[in-house]
Amino acid sequence: MNSSAQPADEPQLALEARLAAEAPGLRAYLRRVAGVGARSAELDDLAQAALERALRYRKSYDPARPLGAWLRTIALRVVLDQRARGLRLREAADAQSNELAAREDATVEHRDELLRVLAPLSEVEREVFARFHGRGETVLELALALQLPEGTVKSHLHRARRKLAERGRTGEAR
């Protein structure tokens, strides 16, 4: 015992020594509770978490009762908390995966609808329209990228808009 230890520290040191003596039995208990598939490192982590929690809540320990039972109750709580945390993580991952799949479905549907609406346009009209309205490119940028005069780009853009407006008026877009 440390010579600087005060008499008030003796129950604390005694509890720590008793917890250390319980550690091998605690690990064996955790192996049974966590299952045969639990790795050694996982068991060590669980045992450490249980011992840490026991020290944190040492004031709840009744010295008149068996230490092993109290410690095993804490260890069981640690295992259950870990499983619940793992379940919440899996549920969050599943929800994120479902949301991503729904977004992908919506994107595919949106793309298909857009292709259907833009179908009556010529390839160059579709290109000019999509880049101007979809990407926000200017007429000058389009002219340089497509190697066309600016006036031709404006003409293609005007024709594309006119065709889409006519199609909308006749109800073909639906």
CATH topology of the largest domain: Rna Polymerase Sigma Factor, Chain: A
Structural class: mainly alpha
Number of helices: 6
The biggest beta sheet, please? none
CATH architecture heading of the largest domain: Orthogonal Bundle
Report the principal-axis shape: rod-shaped
Binned strand content: under 5%
Mean pLDDT across residues? 80
Count up the domains: 2
Distance between the termini: 86 Å
What would you note in describing this structure?
This protein is an all-alpha fold and about 170 residues long. The protein folds into two domains: about 10-95, Rna Polymerase Sigma Factor, Chain: A (Orthogonal Bundle), CATH 1.10.1740; about 120-170, Winged helix-like DNA-binding domain superfamily/Winged helix DNA-binding domain (Arc Repressor Mutant, subunit A, Orthogonal Bundle). The chain has six helices and no strands. The protein has helices at about 10-35, 40-55, 65-120, 125-135, 140-145, 150-170. Helix 1 (about 10-35) crosses helix 3 (about 65-120). The longest helix is centred in the middle third of the chain and has 52 residues, at about 65-120. It starts with 9 loop residues before the first helix and ends with a helix. The model is unreliable at about 1-5 (pLDDT under 50).
